[in-house]
Amino acid sequence: MGALQDKNTTNKVGPIRQPRPDRELGNRMICASIERNATRPLTHIVTEFGISVQVVRDILKKNDYKPFKLKRSNELWPDDTYRRMEFCERLMEMSHRDENLISNSIFSDESSFPLHGRHNPSICHYWSLG
Asked: Per the record, which residues fall in region Disordered (predicted)?
């Protein structure tokens, strides 16, 4: 039975589809894969099951999975103030000995500089039931 098209609009109207057993099994297998490893990239799931990224996202959304990213933060400790002051004093002392020290230094708000293909956790997504 084909889909019917309304003459006044381009929306298609058709019969209500019943879920197929093989489709439901695939959905459960994808959800089970995420349950085993919530950090698994969608590209791995797409390769394993041979379906598109959007279909995987739709399945996870339908099953109440939500993507999220971890944000790292550094906890401040009571002795941090002392250590910061000590660092500043040492830096000032070193800059008096070497006038080019500050101009040859790089300061960044990043905690690390991954080089040579190291893992970048900022692009990892995790899945959790919502």
From this structure: 1-22
